[in-house]
Amino acid sequence: MVSCTAGAARAAGNDVADDAPADRIFGVLPNYATVDPSPRVTTQTTSDAFKVASLGTFDPVVYPFIGAMTALGQASSDDSYGTRYATAFADNAIGNFMTTAVMPSLTHQDSRYYRRGEGGVFSRLAYAASRSVVTRTRSGAATFNISEVAGTAAAAGLSNIYYSPADRTAGGTLTRWGTQVMWDTVANELKEFWPDIRARFRK
Questions:
Q1: 144 in helix, strand or coil?
Q2: Contact (CB, 8 A) for 52 and 9
Q3: Strand partners, 25
Q4: N or C of the chain: less Cβ packing under 10 Å?
């Protein structure tokens, strides 16, 4: 999902942006939900969570990004490009809102990614990957990431509403769920290491 995820958030007056990096990953991908190491972090509210989900889902870059991904996979499907694009956009939007806003609001979890920002490469890789199953409550305590695990599962289930009958199987649903978790984990890795990559580019 393209929730990977702050200048626009600042302009929108979102308190979350005070904790978020001020640039886009690789100068392109939206980065609204990342918190850098800091002694002071604002508490995420339900309003914040839905605002971040909206910004990440409807960011101008998302439309061509999904279009490019749809075009790359076109040869493996008999569906038209328009149908595949609509399906991919719906998958991304539902997944973003379920994992970033709806489930975190129901469980009082913080849907932002908190960078470690220090330590060895492998320990940070492991930390970033673990955030798919470990997150914070809004009070700051570590907890099982229900928002990610159950949110992606709910999104995969809801997608059966618009997928073709051949894809509305238990196997198809589980595959979509696993794929969404995988991409969210990749996004966590990018969020963790992007400031390091950016610093090297600047040198």
A1: strand
A2: yes
A3: 29
A4: C
Model's pTM, two decimal places?
A: 0.84
Whole-number Å distance between alpha carbons of 123 and 129? 10
Confidence category of residue 173, pLDDT binned at 50, 70, 90: very high
pLDDT at 163 over 60: yes
What is the average pLDDT across 173-177?
96
Q: Return all residues near 195 (Cβ < 8 A) that are at least 6 apart.
A: 21, 36, 115, 117
DSSP state of 24: -
Question: Are the CB atoms for 116 and 127 separated by under 8 Å?
Answer: yes
Segment 19-37 shows an average pLDDT of 79
Angle between helices 46-58 and 81-97 (to 10 degrees): 160
Residue 130 confidence (pLDDT) above 90: yes
Residue type, 28: V
Please report how the helices 81-97 and 62-72 are oriented relative to each other, as an axis angle in degrees rounded to 10.
130
Q: What is the mean pLDDT of the chain?
A: 87
Rounded distance between C-alpha atoms, residue 71 and residue 84, angstroms: 9
DSSP code for 162: T
Domain regions of the chain by residue span: 7-197
